[in-house]
Amino acid sequence: MKTAWIFPGQGSQALGMIGDLAESALGQERLEIAERILGWSVLEKCQGDEETLSRTLYTQPCLFVVESILADLLQEKGHFPDLVAGHSLGEYSALYAARVFNFETGLNLVQNRSRLMDAAEGGKMAALMKFDRTSLETVINQTENVVIANDNSAEQVVISGTPEAVDLVLGQVKVKRVMQLKVSGAFHSPLMENAAIQFQQILELVNFRSAKVPVISNVNPSQPINDAEELKSYLIQQMTSSVRWREIMLKLLDVGVEKVIEVGPGKVLTGLIKRTAPIELENISQLADISKGSEDVKLQGSLIGVG
Questions:
Q1: Model confidence over 75-85: pLDDT tens digits?
Q2: For the whole model, what pTM was predicted?
Q3: How far apart are CA 262 and CA 270, in angstroms?
Q4: In Å, how far are 77, 107, 194, 228, 307 from 40, measured between CA atoms?
Q5: Rounded distance between C-alpha atoms, residue 183 and residue 6, angstroms
Q6: CA-CA distance, 155 to 129, in Å (whole number)?
Q7: Helices then strands (H, E): number in the chain?
Q8: 121 in Cβ contact with 184 (< 8 Å)
Q9: Handedness of CA 87, 90, 96, 101 (dihedral sign)
Q10: Rounded Cα–Cα distance for residues 15 and 33 (Å)
């Protein structure tokens, strides 16, 4: 059975998400390494308060640590994917699972990324549920300083831009539900160019290896890829480009994936896939999930994060 592992991004975090992973030998080792790199405790942030955990500066490293531990525990049990993908920040976990870089390198990259994104100002993001896509795309094409940042599914997108531009779009498009996101920056838009330039300088110093299994990129999901330099190029572009998750879901079906395992907290991504493609789905968010094996799970699609 051709299996893909997918990794959620910012917005999937939840208090207590470290759970029983902290009890495993691998989990304890990774938490110690992470504290040395970050200068703060992932365990404490995951067990602290929701407002702190939801801050980009902490959310992204915590998610990467949790997801990388889960990926390694799965592989220790003899489970390996045929390909991987991640939603925004989740792409770093996917690249780690594909052995493009090691844990320390990945966490350093995520730490720098989170700092730059946390410092971004002057932007606004809003999630739109159930809308006319043609109308939305027409309005966005006619409005400066706003883009579709996350194309999550046929019925859910996140728009990103200056506050004025985002409000202008919302005033012209009929939408069943709008949710204003608690971020200060216009993530995944050209307004992140300065942060992207700084991050590129960091990325270019890092040695990427060819992926052990193909990766479907957020920036260009047209074909799964293994090439190290191509993967790095897309990661550089990711900060200012749209997350094309709707197309990634369709590509999974197109390349013959029969089962998808969401590796990380929550069930957002599998919930979206359930509404998009007839693929077997499983969620792994705790050590106990790995031990008990596949079971039927209730899948709920909800708002995907933004970074």
A1: 999 999 999 99
A2: 0.94
A3: 6
A4: 30, 13, 27, 31, 21
A5: 24
A6: 6
A7: 13, 9
A8: yes
A9: positive
A10: 21
Going across the sheet that includes 280-284, the strands are 215-216, 83-86, 3-7, 259-263, 280-284
Tell me the average pLDDT of the chain.
94
What is the Cα–Cα distance from 30 to 24, expressed in whole angstroms?
10
Residue 282: phi, psi to the nearest 5? Answer: -145, 150
Q: Which residue has the tokens 């995944």?
A: 188
Which is it for strands 175-180 and 124-131: parallel, antiparallel or unpaired?
antiparallel
Q: What's the pLDDT band for 208 if we cut at 50, 70, 90?
A: very high
Angle between helices 133-141 and 163-170 (to 10 degrees): 140
Tallying the residues shown for the chain, one arrives at 307
Q: For 33, phi and psi rounded to 5 degrees?
A: -65, -45
Residues with a known catalytic role: 88, 188
* pLDDT tens track for 97-125: 999 999 999 999 999 999 999 999 999 99
CA–CA separation, 14 and 283 (whole Å) = 15
**Hey, what amino acid is at 147?**
V
Which amino acid belongs to residue 30? R
